[in-house]
Amino acid sequence: MNSSKRSFTVSRRDIIRAGAGAAGLGVLPGLVTSAFAADDKGKPALGTWPAGSQGDSVFIGITVPRTGTYALQGEDELKGYQLAIEHINEGHPLIKAISPKTTKGVLGKQLKYGVADSAAKPNDAVQAQQRFITENKAVMITGGTSSAVAVALNKLAQREKVIFVCGISGSNDTTGKDCVRYGVRQNFYGETAANAIGPALLKAYGKNRKAAFMTPDYTYGHTVTKSVNEFLAKNGGWTMVTNQVSPLGAPDYSSYLTNIANSGAEILVNVNWGHDAVLSTQQAKQFGLLPKMKLVIPYQIPFLAREVGPEITEGVYAATDFWWTLEDKYPLAKQFVEAFEKKFGYKPEWGAENAYMEFALWAEAVEHAGTFYPPDVIKSYESPRKLNSFVGEVSWRPEDHQLVRPVVIVRGKAKSAMRNKEDFWEVVEVVPGAGLMQKPDAFGCNLGSYT
């Protein structure tokens, strides 16, 4: 797994099969075995349709990093997918609150799935999903955690005409210049993170501050840094005194931290993600930069606080998709947290929440369309309507397939203030999403064709 020359295969150990047949569904047999809905007849084959939806089940291809610097976050995301599939197949009340037409399965068909390790490498993810499409007739694919992977799967989905629901991806490009008709994204991203956390930073630290950025060298890192820096410079007169760009999986950040120490920075904005964020933050503490400098996490990393400890994250501001204490504000969040903790033994991070919501919203879109025919499902996403979520009412923006949703601002708790071992963050504000988003065409989105 440490060699870039390693060939990629999907073995028996890589593939997980789930779901059951249609037996016991409690619906009329004709509704389960019929190849087409009434309005599907006469439509030409497209992508994996209709072959992928002719039986009593449909297949989903999942790629997440299970090895490498993003592995911990990938496993959390995978658990969210697994719980969503379980709930969809059994017609769980939580799914029905988001997708009211769901009974058991989607359009009466049980979900089966396969999982492959992307290792956060675009080529590995594309090869695995191509196999799922070709051999398993996947009707939907998902993956992310790395935005480079998400962008690559966007392109695959458009080429193969199979819908891609994006996993974690913070890059502006995913629904910006690299958007596609066959891709949708639920979670927040660089621009919305910057516009949500920016006012909190200006209020906490004031104007005309000097900031050092640590940026991973790919689309996520560059676009998040750009959005955050532009907001702080324009609205608060902040200056980026240095931007230290590092490759994924860097084992040592000492040279970058030395440059930061000599830059005169007052604020350290760490855009690194996954284990890279853990290492760089721990080493910043060892170098004596923390707590001398104020630490900011503009795009929150699941499990960061647990990994580095509340002594480091105390008082740190971060923007995130979801935090489990939102259960006190939103009833559906409470149901999700309880169900997830019962199954997996810990409070869900936002990667799991994002994964669950992507699948729940996909089920809603298919049920609303009444068919798996890809253009009709896409038009279902593009049809304006209000939807339920774990953070209140949301909706899809048809111009770029980005969900309009709140961004959550959190601040790290002192260890003495933690109510339990997972109570790392205090929710400061839930910022409405519509005002955080750029104009639909601002980042160069051109969705492309349906067929």
How does this model look, in words?
With 451 residues, this protein is α/β, with parallel strands linked by helices. Helices cover 37% and strands 16% of the residues. It contains 14 helices and 14 strands. The protein has helices spanning 29-33, 71-90, 93-98, 122-136, 147-160, 190-205, 219-236, 254-261, 274-286, 304-308, 310-313, 331-344, 350-369, 374-381; strands at residues 57-64, 110-117, 140-143, 163-166, 183-185, 210-216, 239-246, 267-270, 294-297, 317-320, 395-397, 402-404, 407-412, 425-431. The chain has a 7-stranded mixed sheet with strand order 7-6-8-9-10-13-14, with helices on both faces. Strand 6 (210-216), helix 7 and strand 7 form a beta-alpha-beta unit. The radius of gyration is 22 Å and the shape is globular.
What number of structural domains do the residues give?
Answer: 2
Largest sheet at a glance? 7 strands, mixed
Question: Helix segment count?
Answer: 14
Sequence of strands across the biggest β-sheet: 7-6-8-9-10-13-14
Q: CATH homologous superfamily of the largest domain?
A: Response regulator
Number of strands: 14
Proportion of strand residues: 15-25%
CATH class of the largest domain: Alpha Beta
How confident is the prediction overall: mean pLDDT?
92
What is the name of the CATH architecture of the largest domain? 3-Layer(aba) Sandwich
Q: What is the alpha-carbon Rg in Å?
A: 22 Å
- Report how far the terminal alpha carbons are from each other: 37 Å
The helix/strand class is: alpha/beta
Low-confidence stretches: 1-36
CATH topology of the largest domain: Rossmann fold
How would the global form be characterised? globular
Give helix % range.
25-40%
